[in-house]
Amino acid sequence: MTLRYLSEHALNARLALDLAIKEVGHLQYSDNSLFAQQIDMNWVRAMANKPETAEKVETLSVA
């Protein structure tokens, strides 16, 4: 399969690809750190006091 592109878009495409690769790393970190824990009702209640955990849950719920 051959992809054709306009050379003036190459830099923006590369920047978008680099950003996507970084985001994959962030999502993998969130996934690994969340699911290494036992998630139960107490864990869910404690999220109110742990914004970093709530942010990880939000990140994965959108993905």
Features:
63 residues, mainly alpha, 70% helix, 3 helices, single chain, elongated
Structural class: mainly alpha
Describe the global form: elongated
Rg estimate, integer Å: 18 Å
Strand content: under 5%
* Number of helical elements: 3
Please count the beta strands (DSSP E, at least 2 residues each). 0
Mean pLDDT: 88
Unreliable parts:
none
Q: Helicity level, as a percent range?
A: 55-70%
Main pleated sheet: none
What distance separates the N and C termini? Answer: 28 Å
Order of helices and strands: HHH
Give a nutshell description of this structure.
Helices cover 70% and strands 0% of the residues. It is mostly helical and 63 residues long.
What would you say this structure looks like, in words?
The chain has 63 residues and is mainly alpha-helical. The protein contains 3 helices and no strands. It is elongated and about 55 Å long.
List the SSEs and their pairings.
Elements: H1 10-35, H2 41-46, H3 51-62
Helix pairs in contact: 1-3
